[in-house]
Amino acid sequence: MIGFGQSEEALKLRDDVNDINYRMEKHHQQFYKGAMLNSIGVGSIILGVSSAINPITYIGSAFILAGNIVMINSHKWFKNSGNSKYNSRMQTIKEKKRELKELLRYGKINQEEYNNAIKKLSKQ
Which of 30, 64, 115, 117 is the least buried, fewest Cβ under 10 Å from its Cβ? Predict the structure, then answer.
């Protein structure tokens, strides 16, 4: 467990690991949604071809196209851009957490105030 006595490098490493885990989770969620759209599209095409109803086939093709776009777009979560909106928001949250730790360490806030502030930051 990383506590107040840990170096800044260890804290940064922990934050980086949390960032990677967050990005992987978001990628998997988006990729899964794209795969579901793709599956619905394949099912629609099979249904449309077997029943000779062209509009269902066209709708299935649209679902496959949309699913592939969503799946390809899910790879944006692997991009490591320092100027992205996500990184700037995460950096702000990290700075606020560090400030809260300092306030708690020097007794300017109590543990309950610290916990409430961390909960608020986690909801952002």
Answer: 115
